[in-house]
Amino acid sequence: MNRKEWLEVGKQSLYFVMAAAGMVLLVALMNWLQGKPLEAEKIIIMLGLWLLMFSMFLGLSPFAMDSKQKGMEYLLTLPYSRRRLLFIKLLPRLAAAVLFYFMLVLLYNLMGSDAFAGGFTAFSLAYFALFLISFSLSLVHENFIVQSIWAGVALCGYMALCLFICVLGFGWKFGMPSSWVGPRPWLDLNYDVSSLLTAIAVSFLLAAPFVISLFLAFKKFDLKPARAFNRRQLLFFVPMLLLAFASSLGVAYLMQKSSAYDESFYYILENRQLLKKGWPGKLTLHEENRQRRLDTKRSFMWDWNVFETPGKLFLTAYDVQDNSTAVIRLNLDDLAWDTVRRIPHNYLANKAFSAFRQYGQNLVFLQRSREEAEKAGMQPAVPLKNVRLELVVIDMNSEKSKILSYQIPPFPIRYDPVIFAHDEIDGRQFWLVGNQRANIIRLWEDGQAEVLGFSHKRPAYFGHLLFSHSGKSLVIHRLPASGRETVKEIDGEFQLSVFFQSRMDTGNAREIYGKRDKRIVRLDLDTLTMDDVGPERGQIFFISPGDFFYSEHEAWPSAHGKPDKWRKIYRLQDGKMVFLKQLNFHGPDFGHVWIDKSGITLRENGRTRLFAFPDLRELKFKNLN
Amino acid sequence: MNQPIVEVRDLSLSFSRKKVIDGLSVSFPKGEWAVIAGRNGVGKSTLLRALSGVLLPDAGTIVLAEEALAKKIGFISDALSLFEDWTVERAMAFHCRVFDIADFDDRLLKRLGLSQKDRIKNLSAGERAILHLSLVLSQKPSLLLVDEVMHMLDPYIRELFIETLIEHLAASQATVLTVNHTFSEIEKIPERVLVMDGGRFIIDETTEALRVKMKKIVSRDPLPETLPCFFRKTDGIYKEYYIYPFREELLADHALDFQDIALAEIIKAFIGGGYEQKRMA
Questions:
Q1: Tell me, which fold does domain A263-345 have in CATH?
Q2: Location of each CATH 2.40.10 domain in chain A
Q3: Among A170, A326, A592, B250, which is least packed by CB within 10 angstroms?
Q4: In whole angstroms, how far apart are CA B208 and each of A123, B20, B230, B261?
């Protein structure tokens, strides 16, 4: 009997794999005909959806084939107890579901993007839930299509309940009404351990009544019409669902309430004070022996950005209440604050953490034209369709802003623009905008927009030189008043990890560091020669205007599931790694190191330690932890 | 009397709101061949399905003797249920594996010239019945449940089927319960006859006792009210009266010709009587 089931599931799985392979080939062929590259994410999403359908099919199929072959009566005469029969049916199907899931996980690890990790977690829960729900409904009707409809309806109800409880949980955790809960907690699910555990617990608790009621009702399964069986299963299911619902609420409350939300950002200011940004809209300014707190009373979800000017800070935050991004000015002496500018969420041309840049006393960002922003469903992550862009320049001294409007030439593939440089030629200012696999655009302050070619990787700008990628090599250009002049081309993979820095004054840089073919290399900006510095075993940090640091990891690439015990911090200078400090981690959590303008922040096991440049002396703040 | 191989106590079984078996109690001793008869839809097949475990009772118990555990119950249903896409060979292999059968006896299949590569869905009803019989007999069952399949068989296969059953009974002392509507071929085989109606047995007699207790009178005139007439049938100007229960004293009281009748006719009379009572109710 076992063999029969394994063979049957094996056959079904083979058909599934063949259909999936056919689908991928078809998409590859279509892309090839249209001259487009095959996008790994698209393939993974497609396979994921296909796998969802297969999990439903697997779940619904245990008795479908027996019934179709008129073998149900024979099946029930076999010398197995009802429970054993159900296990024999369940095991191969569960094994296939798990196997295919891990194959997709493997594929995701090989080809997928971390940006989808939260979505993938939600997919994983839905996948197993759909399998279990479908399995529990495998006897709901003799007709497979009716079964599928029931499974779909049950899944919708199940998902609605899960969503309801998880959203309530998010609300409890973040201390806000659940109507404020946006998509972010779901996207961050894989980073937010308590929410992840809550989601897993809730999804399994709510799936349990389906499966348990099947097992209980199946003890008396026979050849009577399905209606009788459904009635019996329902009698078990309803009280169990109520119990599971109540338990899920309890579990969500306990797990979320007990893990207070502490996605705080820490930033060491130039004066060696520490700014802690907490939820919702709370700020704490730590000095050595005292701390001052500010509660904005707004549901601000702070972004990473901190821009410093003498006596003032400019911060950006997502305002959950009105779905906008606010630019906030904070006076350091009295902690008075004000909103300098409010950008409706659909106007921002990119996600806030990569949208804002500081160049000198100016804070700049790109926004969509009103025509595009007001389209329904527009979000910062949606690539631009229209080619009208506005550059907003906020003078952080006067707090006045001006808007420069541009008509951008059409883009060959995509446009997800990030400002990555600012400079001036003959007294005319310009900003450079680009991204990976996109055109580089120069936006002149007089409203002209100029295309400077295409870059396969994210471009960079140092020492008045533009660095782009041809796909095979790093190409260095000088930018005259019009167009670009190629100065040098260096073969090989070259990667500069500077794109997401929010302060990008790079004019003084005389050398830059990056990764090339698994090595750390230095590029001398005077001679444009490249020197080898050492093997790549960690991350490079750029600190404006021209400092580079290197964080060496114990395991590189990071070992999944195994936290590092240490990180070594080096300054990269004159082609050498100058050892600064070793930071030791004590587990069990993953330690997190961030290097910014004034020092290093180390977070581990809920504790925060800070080390200030230049000597990386540890800064102690009263009541910090 | 032998120990019962199966004992049914207060068995009730319904389909939706229709009670098909209603508080039925019966036991079958080891080595007995019993025939269950009755009109259509009275619960004969349902009872066999309940005994085989395919249907589960709503109330009551079915107690099986130790030697009649699941692997030793052979059930041939009127649906002749098997996995239809399978070949004969695969069905045999599967059945042997599941029921721990070491030596499968395929003589019957060979006698019919059945190829092991044949798919079950392509077999005739008779061939399927013989395949079923081969499968269940290979289990060496202590309790053999045979639903009404004989009417589907041609005379040759029917004879083969019955002969095989008789051989098996002789060799193994198994209990055989068959549901039958046609009795001509098995007239002399069953030791016990049970007639079902209204979800219970209305008759439960040994074959011999039944033959003694049921008589037929053919007459042009109406019978006296004192005679226990179970069923009457008109045949031209004559009427056939079936008397049950017949007692010797009736011979002295009535100068009538009480005829002995065959088992098939006895059963037919009971079934006809059942329909008549239903009509009158």
A1: Thrombin, subunit H (2.40.10)
A2: 263-345
A3: A592
A4: 72, 29, 19, 12
